[in-house]
Structures are given as C-alpha cells and as structure tokens.
TrEMBL record:
This is GNAT family N-acetyltransferase. Residues 1-136 form the N-acetyltransferase domain. It holds the Pfam family Acetyltransf_10. CDD domains: NAT_SF (cd04301). The lineage of its organism: Bacteria, Pseudomonadati, Bacteroidota, Sphingobacteriia, Sphingobacteriales. It comes from Pedobacter jeongneungensis.
Amino acid sequence: MVQIEQIFPSLTWRIRHETMYPDEPFDIVKLKDDFDGIHFGLYLEHRLTGVVSLFHEGDVYQFRKLAILPSAQKLGLGSQLMDYILDFCKIQKATKLWCNARINAKEFYYKFGFHETDKTFFKDGHDFVVMEKELSS
C-alpha cells in the first residue's frame, strides 16, 4: 500500500542522506531554504520510503531531492511521486516544473515529458543538467 502526503522538512533528511549522499556528512542534505518549501513523503506499508521537495517563485516550480530508499528502488515508487507532484503543480496553476537532474537519471525524467536545457553543471561529485516541463495552465 502506497500513501503520499505532505511532510515536515526534517523528515526528508534521512531519506535524502541514505539515498543520495550516504558517504557524506548528514548535514549535506539540508537545504538552506528547506523551511520555505513544500515536502512530500511516500509511505510504503506505512514506512517513509521516498521524498521530494517543491519550491516555487510565482507559477514556476522546481522540485529537488527526489529520493527513494535504495531497497525500494525499481518498484515504480519514484514514478508515483513524480505523478503526484505533477498533479499538485497543475492544481496550483504552475506553468513550468523544472529540476537539476543528475545526468544518469535523465531517462527517468524523459518519461514524464521533461526536456533538457543547455544548462549543465558539476556539483558534489555529480554531473547535472537542468530539465524542465511546460505545464498547461
């Protein structure tokens, strides 16, 4: 059974750490603007298993730190979380949703209609590309 709900920012940190930066200090996963965002948790069998954080300026939204625990990856949970935030953004009348995608995760975002921009960068040992999707208002 999967349930997705809004969660407190600090609940995202453990999942982010275990999934994205397990060999780094815990505080690396805390974003300076975490308490300005909207955070969602995916619960699998009542256990917090995945997280994603949304931030916006006007009607343009960015999602950050989409993470599913390694033990639960490849089960379609990331797709369920993406579908959820896409629906949420449409309800909020967002015009665009974008992210800084790890290069090795680009294919995942293509499935949801995201396209690459020409903006790329290297951070924390990973190559990233900015990907975005226009949303119909």
